[in-house]
Amino acid sequence: MKKPRFSYEHAIPALATLSALPAVGIAFWLIWSADFSTRLQWTLTVFVGGSWTGTLLVLRERLVRPLQTVSNMLSALQEGDYSMRARVGKPEDSMGLVAYEVNSLRETLREQRLEVLEATALLRRVMAEIDVAVFTFDADDRLALANRAAEQLLGRSAESMAGRSAATLGLAEVLDGEAPRVVDRAFPGSASRWEVRISRFRQDGRPHRLLLLSDLSRVLREEERKAWQRLVRVLGHEINNSLAPIRSIAQSLTAILQRDGSQEETAQDLRDGLDVISGRSEALARFMSSYARLARLPPPTLVPLDVGTWIQRVVQLETRIPVEVQAGPAVQLMADGDQLDQLLINLVDNAVDASAETDGGVRIGWSVGRQEVEVWVEDEGPGIADTGNLFVPFFTTKASGSGIGLVLSRQIAEAHHGTLSLANRNGGKGCVARLRLPVE
Prior knowledge:
Order of helices and strands: HHHEEHHHHEEEHHEHEEHEEHEE
Radius of gyration: 44 Å
Low-confidence stretches: none
Oligomer: single chain
Distance between the termini: 77 Å
Mean pLDDT: 77
Protein backbone atom coordinates (compact mmCIF):
# COMPACT_ATOMS: atom_id res chain seq x y z
CA MET A 1 0.00 0.00 0.00
CA LYS A 2 1.41 3.35 -1.08
CA LYS A 3 1.95 5.95 1.57
CA PRO A 4 -0.10 9.10 0.98
CA ARG A 5 2.08 11.91 -0.32
CA PHE A 6 1.92 15.43 1.03
CA SER A 7 0.03 17.84 -1.20
CA TYR A 8 1.83 20.93 -2.47
CA GLU A 9 -0.09 23.14 0.01
CA HIS A 10 1.13 21.01 2.97
CA ALA A 11 4.58 20.23 1.62
CA ILE A 12 5.70 23.89 1.48
CA PRO A 13 4.84 24.69 5.15
CA ALA A 14 6.33 21.35 6.25
CA LEU A 15 9.61 22.09 4.50
CA ALA A 16 9.65 25.62 5.91
CA THR A 17 8.99 24.19 9.39
CA LEU A 18 11.81 21.73 9.10
CA SER A 19 14.21 24.35 7.79
CA ALA A 20 13.42 26.78 10.63
CA LEU A 21 13.09 24.18 13.36
CA PRO A 22 16.79 24.21 14.47
CA ALA A 23 16.85 27.99 14.76
CA VAL A 24 13.58 28.05 16.67
CA GLY A 25 14.78 25.26 18.97
CA ILE A 26 17.99 27.15 19.74
CA ALA A 27 15.97 30.30 20.42
CA PHE A 28 13.73 28.44 22.85
CA TRP A 29 16.79 26.91 24.62
CA LEU A 30 18.43 30.31 24.96
CA ILE A 31 15.23 31.84 26.35
CA TRP A 32 14.64 29.15 28.96
CA SER A 33 18.31 28.72 29.91
CA ALA A 34 18.87 32.44 30.47
CA ASP A 35 18.35 34.10 33.83
CA PHE A 36 15.01 35.65 32.89
CA SER A 37 11.85 35.86 34.86
CA THR A 38 9.22 33.28 34.08
CA ARG A 39 6.88 35.90 32.74
CA LEU A 40 9.50 37.23 30.32
CA GLN A 41 10.42 33.71 29.21
CA TRP A 42 6.80 32.93 28.35
CA THR A 43 6.42 36.27 26.58
CA LEU A 44 9.48 35.64 24.44
CA THR A 45 8.38 32.06 23.76
CA VAL A 46 4.92 33.19 22.55
CA PHE A 47 6.50 35.95 20.46
CA VAL A 48 8.98 33.62 18.71
CA GLY A 49 6.40 30.88 18.23
CA GLY A 50 3.78 33.32 16.92
CA SER A 51 6.23 34.96 14.56
CA TRP A 52 7.30 31.55 13.31
CA THR A 53 3.69 30.42 12.76
CA GLY A 54 2.69 33.69 11.08
CA THR A 55 5.66 33.52 8.77
CA LEU A 56 4.72 29.98 7.78
CA LEU A 57 1.13 31.04 7.02
CA VAL A 58 2.23 34.07 4.99
CA LEU A 59 4.74 31.91 3.12
CA ARG A 60 2.04 29.39 2.30
CA GLU A 61 -0.31 32.13 1.13
CA ARG A 62 2.32 33.83 -1.06
CA LEU A 63 3.34 30.58 -2.71
CA VAL A 64 0.05 28.73 -3.07
CA ARG A 65 -2.42 31.52 -3.88
CA PRO A 66 -0.75 32.72 -7.14
CA LEU A 67 -0.43 29.12 -8.29
CA GLN A 68 -4.12 28.56 -7.62
CA THR A 69 -4.88 31.69 -9.67
CA VAL A 70 -2.74 30.41 -12.56
CA SER A 71 -4.41 26.99 -12.30
CA ASN A 72 -7.88 28.59 -12.43
CA MET A 73 -6.88 30.64 -15.48
CA LEU A 74 -5.50 27.61 -17.33
CA SER A 75 -8.68 25.70 -16.51
CA ALA A 76 -10.76 28.58 -17.88
CA LEU A 77 -8.65 28.71 -21.03
CA GLN A 78 -9.14 24.99 -21.48
CA GLU A 79 -12.91 25.53 -21.25
CA GLY A 80 -12.74 28.37 -23.78
CA ASP A 81 -13.34 31.16 -21.28
CA TYR A 82 -11.02 34.08 -22.05
CA SER A 83 -12.58 36.65 -19.73
CA MET A 84 -10.25 35.99 -16.76
CA ARG A 85 -7.00 37.88 -16.43
CA ALA A 86 -4.22 37.38 -13.89
CA ARG A 87 -2.91 40.32 -11.89
CA VAL A 88 0.67 40.97 -12.92
CA GLY A 89 3.16 41.88 -10.19
CA LYS A 90 6.58 43.37 -10.63
CA PRO A 91 8.27 42.56 -13.98
CA GLU A 92 11.37 41.24 -12.19
CA ASP A 93 9.26 39.04 -9.96
CA SER A 94 9.15 35.37 -11.03
CA MET A 95 5.46 34.94 -10.23
CA GLY A 96 4.70 38.21 -11.97
CA LEU A 97 6.47 36.91 -15.06
CA VAL A 98 4.37 33.72 -14.91
CA ALA A 99 1.18 35.80 -14.70
CA TYR A 100 2.33 37.95 -17.63
CA GLU A 101 3.00 34.87 -19.78
CA VAL A 102 -0.38 33.38 -18.89
CA ASN A 103 -2.09 36.63 -19.89
CA SER A 104 -0.16 36.61 -23.18
CA LEU A 105 -1.28 33.03 -23.78
CA ARG A 106 -4.86 34.11 -23.08
CA GLU A 107 -4.67 36.89 -25.69
CA THR A 108 -3.10 34.58 -28.27
CA LEU A 109 -5.72 31.88 -27.76
CA ARG A 110 -8.53 34.44 -27.86
CA GLU A 111 -7.30 35.87 -31.18
CA GLN A 112 -6.81 32.42 -32.65
CA ARG A 113 -10.29 31.40 -31.57
CA LEU A 114 -11.79 34.50 -33.19
CA GLU A 115 -9.88 33.75 -36.41
CA VAL A 116 -11.12 30.16 -36.37
CA LEU A 117 -14.70 31.26 -35.76
CA GLU A 118 -14.54 33.82 -38.57
CA ALA A 119 -12.92 31.36 -40.96
CA THR A 120 -15.51 28.72 -40.07
CA ALA A 121 -18.35 31.18 -40.63
CA LEU A 122 -16.90 32.17 -43.99
CA LEU A 123 -16.44 28.53 -44.99
CA ARG A 124 -20.01 27.72 -44.07
CA ARG A 125 -21.30 30.69 -46.05
CA VAL A 126 -19.21 29.74 -49.09
CA MET A 127 -20.34 26.12 -48.91
CA ALA A 128 -23.95 27.23 -48.62
CA GLU A 129 -23.76 29.60 -51.59
CA ILE A 130 -21.71 27.65 -54.14
CA ASP A 131 -23.58 25.49 -56.64
CA VAL A 132 -21.11 22.59 -56.27
CA ALA A 133 -22.33 19.61 -54.24
CA VAL A 134 -19.90 19.03 -51.35
CA PHE A 135 -19.84 15.81 -49.29
CA THR A 136 -17.39 14.71 -46.60
CA PHE A 137 -17.13 11.06 -45.51
CA ASP A 138 -15.32 9.63 -42.52
CA ALA A 139 -13.02 6.60 -42.46
CA ASP A 140 -16.06 4.29 -42.52
CA ASP A 141 -17.50 6.06 -45.59
CA ARG A 142 -20.29 7.58 -43.56
CA LEU A 143 -21.49 11.08 -44.36
CA ALA A 144 -20.15 13.72 -42.01
CA LEU A 145 -21.09 16.93 -43.84
CA ALA A 146 -23.17 18.03 -46.84
CA ASN A 147 -23.86 21.55 -48.12
CA ARG A 148 -27.06 23.01 -49.55
CA ALA A 149 -26.27 21.99 -53.14
CA ALA A 150 -25.70 18.41 -51.92
CA GLU A 151 -29.10 18.46 -50.21
CA GLN A 152 -30.77 19.60 -53.42
CA LEU A 153 -28.88 17.00 -55.44
CA LEU A 154 -30.04 14.06 -53.31
CA GLY A 155 -33.38 15.59 -52.39
CA ARG A 156 -32.79 15.13 -48.65
CA SER A 157 -31.74 17.29 -45.72
CA ALA A 158 -28.23 17.11 -44.30
CA GLU A 159 -29.62 16.06 -40.91
CA SER A 160 -31.42 13.05 -42.38
CA MET A 161 -28.31 11.99 -44.34
CA ALA A 162 -25.78 12.43 -41.52
CA GLY A 163 -24.12 9.17 -40.52
CA ARG A 164 -25.45 7.21 -43.50
CA SER A 165 -23.06 5.23 -45.66
CA ALA A 166 -22.09 6.24 -49.18
CA ALA A 167 -23.75 3.08 -50.51
CA THR A 168 -27.06 4.01 -48.86
CA LEU A 169 -26.89 7.49 -50.38
CA GLY A 170 -26.06 6.10 -53.84
CA LEU A 171 -22.60 7.67 -53.90
CA ALA A 172 -20.40 4.59 -53.38
CA GLU A 173 -19.62 4.16 -57.08
CA VAL A 174 -18.80 7.84 -57.47
CA LEU A 175 -16.70 7.94 -54.29
CA ASP A 176 -14.62 4.85 -55.10
CA GLY A 177 -13.77 5.71 -58.71
CA GLU A 178 -10.86 7.64 -60.12
CA ALA A 179 -10.73 11.40 -59.84
CA PRO A 180 -10.87 13.85 -61.40
CA ARG A 181 -13.23 12.44 -64.02
CA VAL A 182 -16.52 13.17 -65.77
CA VAL A 183 -19.54 10.90 -65.31
CA ASP A 184 -23.09 10.86 -66.61
CA ARG A 185 -25.29 10.13 -63.63
CA ALA A 186 -28.88 10.62 -62.54
CA PHE A 187 -29.59 11.70 -58.96
CA PRO A 188 -32.96 12.36 -57.31
CA GLY A 189 -32.46 16.09 -57.70
CA SER A 190 -30.88 16.20 -61.17
CA ALA A 191 -29.69 14.06 -64.07
CA SER A 192 -26.66 15.57 -65.77
CA ARG A 193 -22.97 15.28 -66.59
CA TRP A 194 -20.81 15.72 -63.50
CA GLU A 195 -17.18 16.45 -62.84
CA VAL A 196 -16.02 14.35 -59.89
CA ARG A 197 -13.18 15.51 -57.65
CA ILE A 198 -12.02 13.66 -54.53
CA SER A 199 -9.42 14.70 -51.97
CA ARG A 200 -8.33 13.40 -48.58
CA PHE A 201 -7.92 15.21 -45.29
CA ARG A 202 -7.71 14.42 -41.58
CA GLN A 203 -10.07 15.60 -38.87
CA ASP A 204 -9.60 14.74 -35.18
CA GLY A 205 -6.73 12.51 -36.27
CA ARG A 206 -8.95 10.33 -38.49
CA PRO A 207 -8.85 10.17 -42.30
CA HIS A 208 -11.76 11.71 -44.24
CA ARG A 209 -12.61 12.09 -47.90
CA LEU A 210 -14.00 15.18 -49.61
CA LEU A 211 -16.28 14.59 -52.63
CA LEU A 212 -17.13 17.44 -55.03
CA LEU A 213 -19.73 17.08 -57.80
CA SER A 214 -19.88 19.92 -60.35
CA ASP A 215 -22.70 20.12 -62.88
CA LEU A 216 -21.04 20.51 -66.28
CA SER A 217 -24.14 20.31 -68.45
CA ARG A 218 -25.36 23.79 -67.64
CA VAL A 219 -21.96 25.33 -68.37
CA LEU A 220 -21.59 23.32 -71.56
CA ARG A 221 -25.09 24.25 -72.71
CA GLU A 222 -24.40 27.92 -72.08
CA GLU A 223 -21.11 27.81 -73.99
CA GLU A 224 -22.75 25.83 -76.77
CA ARG A 225 -25.57 28.35 -76.99
CA LYS A 226 -23.10 31.24 -77.21
CA ALA A 227 -21.07 29.40 -79.85
CA TRP A 228 -24.17 28.76 -81.94
CA GLN A 229 -25.23 32.39 -81.57
CA ARG A 230 -21.85 33.61 -82.80
CA LEU A 231 -21.83 31.08 -85.64
CA VAL A 232 -25.37 31.91 -86.76
CA ARG A 233 -24.65 35.65 -86.58
CA VAL A 234 -21.51 35.35 -88.69
CA LEU A 235 -22.99 32.90 -91.18
CA GLY A 236 -26.18 34.93 -91.51
CA HIS A 237 -24.23 38.13 -92.04
CA GLU A 238 -21.98 36.67 -94.72
CA ILE A 239 -24.70 34.75 -96.55
CA ASN A 240 -27.03 37.77 -96.54
CA ASN A 241 -24.21 39.90 -97.95
CA SER A 242 -24.00 37.48 -100.86
CA LEU A 243 -27.71 36.76 -101.33
CA ALA A 244 -28.83 40.41 -101.22
CA PRO A 245 -26.97 41.49 -104.38
CA ILE A 246 -27.79 38.20 -106.09
CA ARG A 247 -31.49 38.75 -105.42
CA SER A 248 -31.27 42.39 -106.49
CA ILE A 249 -29.40 41.57 -109.71
CA ALA A 250 -31.82 38.76 -110.50
CA GLN A 251 -34.73 41.16 -110.20
CA SER A 252 -32.91 43.68 -112.40
CA LEU A 253 -32.21 41.05 -115.05
CA THR A 254 -35.87 40.05 -115.05
CA ALA A 255 -36.85 43.66 -115.57
CA ILE A 256 -34.32 44.02 -118.41
CA LEU A 257 -35.77 41.00 -120.22
CA GLN A 258 -39.25 42.47 -119.92
CA ARG A 259 -38.43 45.95 -121.21
CA ASP A 260 -37.88 47.01 -124.81
CA GLY A 261 -34.36 47.75 -125.95
CA SER A 262 -31.66 46.76 -128.32
CA GLN A 263 -30.25 43.28 -128.09
CA GLU A 264 -26.75 44.67 -127.60
CA GLU A 265 -27.73 46.75 -124.57
CA THR A 266 -29.71 43.85 -123.16
CA ALA A 267 -26.79 41.45 -123.59
CA GLN A 268 -24.39 43.88 -121.90
CA ASP A 269 -26.74 44.33 -118.93
CA LEU A 270 -27.10 40.57 -118.65
CA ARG A 271 -23.32 40.12 -118.69
CA ASP A 272 -22.86 42.76 -116.00
CA GLY A 273 -25.49 41.15 -113.82
CA LEU A 274 -24.04 37.70 -114.27
CA ASP A 275 -20.58 39.05 -113.37
CA VAL A 276 -21.99 40.40 -110.10
CA ILE A 277 -23.72 37.09 -109.34
CA SER A 278 -20.52 35.20 -110.17
CA GLY A 279 -18.43 37.50 -107.97
CA ARG A 280 -20.74 37.15 -104.99
CA SER A 281 -20.89 33.38 -105.47
CA GLU A 282 -17.10 33.23 -105.43
CA ALA A 283 -17.02 35.38 -102.31
CA LEU A 284 -19.46 33.02 -100.62
CA ALA A 285 -17.31 30.06 -101.67
CA ARG A 286 -14.21 31.77 -100.23
CA PHE A 287 -16.10 32.37 -97.00
CA MET A 288 -16.98 28.69 -96.65
CA SER A 289 -13.39 27.74 -97.51
CA SER A 290 -12.07 30.08 -94.82
CA TYR A 291 -14.47 28.59 -92.28
CA ALA A 292 -13.24 25.10 -93.17
CA ARG A 293 -9.67 26.32 -92.77
CA LEU A 294 -10.39 27.41 -89.21
CA ALA A 295 -11.98 24.07 -88.40
CA ARG A 296 -9.09 22.02 -89.84
CA LEU A 297 -6.09 23.61 -88.11
CA PRO A 298 -3.68 20.68 -87.50
CA PRO A 299 -1.81 20.25 -84.21
CA PRO A 300 1.64 21.89 -84.22
CA THR A 301 4.77 19.89 -85.01
CA LEU A 302 7.26 21.04 -82.37
CA VAL A 303 10.88 21.56 -83.38
CA PRO A 304 13.58 23.94 -82.05
CA LEU A 305 12.97 27.48 -83.31
CA ASP A 306 15.31 30.46 -82.82
CA VAL A 307 13.16 33.52 -82.06
CA GLY A 308 15.50 36.05 -83.65
CA THR A 309 15.82 34.06 -86.89
CA TRP A 310 12.07 33.54 -87.03
CA ILE A 311 11.28 37.25 -86.66
CA GLN A 312 13.92 38.32 -89.18
CA ARG A 313 12.54 35.80 -91.70
CA VAL A 314 9.00 37.17 -91.39
CA VAL A 315 10.08 40.84 -91.44
CA GLN A 316 11.94 40.31 -94.73
CA LEU A 317 8.68 39.24 -96.36
CA GLU A 318 7.15 42.69 -95.80
CA THR A 319 8.15 45.01 -98.66
CA ARG A 320 5.64 47.84 -98.41
CA ILE A 321 7.34 49.72 -95.56
CA PRO A 322 10.49 48.98 -93.53
CA VAL A 323 9.71 47.25 -90.23
CA GLU A 324 12.00 48.19 -87.34
CA VAL A 325 13.29 45.22 -85.34
CA GLN A 326 14.23 45.76 -81.69
CA ALA A 327 16.16 42.62 -80.89
CA GLY A 328 15.86 40.89 -77.52
CA PRO A 329 17.90 38.15 -75.84
CA ALA A 330 18.81 35.01 -77.75
CA VAL A 331 16.24 32.30 -77.00
CA GLN A 332 14.85 29.15 -78.58
CA LEU A 333 11.33 27.75 -78.55
CA MET A 334 9.87 24.33 -79.23
CA ALA A 335 7.29 25.31 -81.83
CA ASP A 336 5.86 24.74 -85.28
CA GLY A 337 7.78 27.19 -87.46
CA ASP A 338 5.26 27.16 -90.32
CA GLN A 339 2.32 27.95 -88.06
CA LEU A 340 4.19 30.69 -86.18
CA ASP A 341 5.27 32.18 -89.52
CA GLN A 342 1.60 32.46 -90.51
CA LEU A 343 0.72 33.96 -87.11
CA LEU A 344 3.43 36.63 -87.25
CA ILE A 345 2.73 37.39 -90.92
CA ASN A 346 -0.88 38.16 -89.99
CA LEU A 347 0.19 40.47 -87.15
CA VAL A 348 2.76 42.33 -89.25
CA ASP A 349 0.33 42.61 -92.17
CA ASN A 350 -2.35 44.14 -89.92
CA ALA A 351 0.19 46.54 -88.40
CA VAL A 352 1.41 47.71 -91.83
CA ASP A 353 -2.18 48.16 -93.08
CA ALA A 354 -3.01 50.27 -90.01
CA SER A 355 0.15 52.40 -90.25
CA ALA A 356 -0.45 53.01 -93.96
CA GLU A 357 -3.56 55.02 -93.03
CA THR A 358 -1.51 57.50 -90.98
CA ASP A 359 1.91 57.21 -92.67
CA GLY A 360 3.28 55.76 -89.42
CA GLY A 361 5.83 53.09 -88.70
CA VAL A 362 5.86 49.51 -87.44
CA ARG A 363 8.15 48.02 -84.80
CA ILE A 364 8.62 44.46 -83.68
CA GLY A 365 10.67 43.01 -80.81
CA TRP A 366 10.75 40.43 -78.07
CA SER A 367 11.67 39.98 -74.42
CA VAL A 368 12.27 36.93 -72.24
CA GLY A 369 10.66 36.37 -68.85
CA ARG A 370 11.09 33.56 -66.35
CA GLN A 371 9.15 30.95 -68.32
CA GLU A 372 7.90 32.72 -71.44
CA VAL A 373 8.85 34.79 -74.44
CA GLU A 374 6.81 37.87 -75.33
CA VAL A 375 6.84 39.00 -78.96
CA TRP A 376 5.24 42.40 -79.57
CA VAL A 377 4.26 44.23 -82.75
CA GLU A 378 3.52 47.96 -82.52
CA ASP A 379 2.00 50.18 -85.17
CA GLU A 380 1.25 53.91 -85.40
CA GLY A 381 -2.13 53.53 -87.00
CA PRO A 382 -5.51 54.91 -85.91
CA GLY A 383 -5.87 52.30 -83.14
CA ILE A 384 -8.64 49.84 -82.38
CA ALA A 385 -12.14 51.26 -82.26
CA ASP A 386 -14.03 48.10 -81.31
CA THR A 387 -11.99 45.63 -79.25
CA GLY A 388 -14.98 43.37 -78.57
CA ASN A 389 -15.05 41.94 -82.10
CA LEU A 390 -11.31 41.48 -82.63
CA PHE A 391 -11.45 37.70 -82.42
CA VAL A 392 -14.95 37.15 -83.83
CA PRO A 393 -14.56 34.91 -86.91
CA PHE A 394 -15.03 36.71 -90.25
CA PHE A 395 -15.41 40.12 -88.64
CA THR A 396 -13.15 42.60 -90.44
CA THR A 397 -12.85 46.33 -90.99
CA LYS A 398 -10.86 45.91 -94.20
CA ALA A 399 -12.60 46.18 -97.56
CA SER A 400 -10.93 43.00 -98.83
CA GLY A 401 -10.34 41.28 -95.50
CA SER A 402 -11.46 37.73 -94.76
CA GLY A 403 -11.88 38.17 -91.02
CA ILE A 404 -10.00 34.98 -90.08
CA GLY A 405 -6.44 36.28 -89.66
CA LEU A 406 -6.63 37.14 -85.96
CA VAL A 407 -8.84 34.17 -85.13
CA LEU A 408 -6.41 31.81 -86.84
CA SER A 409 -3.48 33.52 -85.12
CA ARG A 410 -5.03 33.08 -81.69
CA GLN A 411 -5.77 29.43 -82.41
CA ILE A 412 -2.12 28.91 -83.35
CA ALA A 413 -0.98 30.68 -80.15
CA GLU A 414 -3.27 28.59 -77.96
CA ALA A 415 -2.19 25.40 -79.73
CA HIS A 416 1.33 26.29 -78.55
CA HIS A 417 0.00 26.86 -74.98
CA GLY A 418 0.43 30.62 -75.42
CA THR A 419 -1.77 33.71 -75.60
CA LEU A 420 -2.39 36.51 -78.09
CA SER A 421 -3.80 39.91 -77.17
CA LEU A 422 -4.29 43.27 -78.92
CA ALA A 423 -4.78 46.64 -77.26
CA ASN A 424 -4.38 50.33 -77.98
CA ARG A 425 -1.01 51.73 -77.02
CA ASN A 426 -0.60 53.79 -73.87
CA GLY A 427 0.91 57.20 -74.47
CA GLY A 428 0.80 57.03 -78.26
CA LYS A 429 -1.40 56.35 -81.22
CA GLY A 430 -1.79 52.92 -82.73
CA CYS A 431 -2.05 49.51 -81.12
CA VAL A 432 0.23 46.74 -79.94
CA ALA A 433 -0.15 42.98 -80.38
CA ARG A 434 1.46 40.77 -77.71
CA LEU A 435 2.21 37.10 -78.30
CA ARG A 436 3.31 35.11 -75.24
CA LEU A 437 4.76 31.64 -75.71
CA PRO A 438 6.21 29.28 -73.10
CA VAL A 439 9.97 28.73 -73.24
CA GLU A 440 9.60 25.06 -72.29
